[in-house]
Amino acid sequence: MSPITVALVLAVTTTTLAKIFEMHLERVESVMIQMLRNRRWAGRVRQRRRMTLGNTSTDPFLRSQSLTYYYGSEYLGNITIGTPEQRFQVVVDTGSADFWVTDYSCVGDEPEVCEHSLCDAGLVCVVFCPESTCCTKNDVEGRKNYCKGRRLFDSRKSDTYIKADGTWRIMYGIESVRGFCGNDTVRLGVDSERLIVPGTRFGQANKLSVFFSEKPVDGVLGLAFYLLSATNNVPPFQRAAELGLVDPIFTVYLEKVQQLDGKAHGGLVTYGGFDSQHCSETITYENLTAATYWQFKMKSVTAGDFHAAFPWKAITSTSTSFINAPVIMAEKVAKAVGAVFRLSAFRHCSR
């Protein structure tokens, strides 16, 4: 499969510099691929569907992201926050606008015994849990802490950190991440060509759901538009463009790695310019249908003998390896390429 390159232009009015910044990506094997190999994916999909029934939120202010997007995510970027710098590895996501990392307050001070099922708040806890402090009311299901084992941002160790107003919650399917906001210097990338954005508001997550126990990342770097943000923070790249630190364009180059064992070089995000090293000189422009997602009109779809022309709206998202489509169209495409349907349709990419 050929590498994928997407050049995205952010429409802002500002005086900019010609400086270009680079952030190297690492490609890791997605949770979905691991589960497929171990024959656990179909069971997980069925479980999620059962859990979703009756759990749809009616809160109009609660933003939701597709959980399957992050099960398929494969490309991670390194960033730093604060002074001195604290390093994190995040999902680089053109399909969302929120930037958050796990906070040191997420781990908490409860003893490890509190994670045992008998130590959930209630009479059973009072009788059987060896630690009475575990028996206080807890606002999340169970006591298991999914922040452990991650890099955690510690605002106490940053000289440039400023506490910001506001709390937030983002739904991933029926699970969620929640936290509060801070303001600090953010650096996209970790080498000399990184983009430094001072005074950036970001999310500090102090509650993670079970999904993140399967995905060892430290947060999400959203590259979509501010109107999509659940944290009500301007995304770092949009802020950099508004400050005149970069031209309002970034290029995403995703490299296909044939044999993946652990982590490997996965590509490059070029902030403030076009990636002429990896990209073709032929550029095709498409107007966005809304300044929320990187969303555009898809003129037609062709697969084998199947062809359909209809003005569907499509979203380009770097956070997932999934290709999502309306059920009827997906069935026709799957049939045209000889895919086998097992809760998802699969066809070897070389065909």
UniProtKB/TrEMBL annotation:
Q: Which GO terms describe its biological process?
A: proteolysis
| CDD domains assigned to the protein according to its UniProt record, in alphabetical order | pepsin_like (cd05471)
Give the family per the record.
Belongs to the peptidase A1 family.
- Give GO MF terms, alphabetically: aspartic-type endopeptidase activity
Q: Does the keyword Repressor apply?
A: no
The residue ranges of the Peptidase A1 domain are: 75-351
Q: Which PANTHER family match?
A: BETA-SITE APP-CLEAVING ENZYME, ISOFORM A-RELATED (PTHR47966), PEPTIDASE A1 DOMAIN-CONTAINING PROTEIN (PTHR47966:SF45)
What InterPro entries does this protein's entry cite? Aspartic_peptidase_A1 (IPR001461), Aspartic_peptidase_AS (IPR001969), Pepsin-like_dom (IPR034164), PEPTIDASE_A1 (IPR033121), Peptidase_aspartic_dom_sf (IPR021109)
Q: Provide the protein name.
A: Peptidase A1 domain-containing protein
Q: Name one Pfam family in it.
A: Asp
Q: Where is the secretion signal located?
A: 1-18
Q: Which residues cross the membrane?
A: none
Q: Output the PROSITE patterns linked to this UniProt entry.
A: ASP_PROTEASE (PS00141), PEPTIDASE_A1 (PS51767)
The entry's keywords: Aspartyl protease, Hydrolase, Protease, Signal
Question: In terms of domain of life, where is this protein from?
Answer: Eukaryota
What would be one Gene Ontology cellular-component term for the protein? lysosome
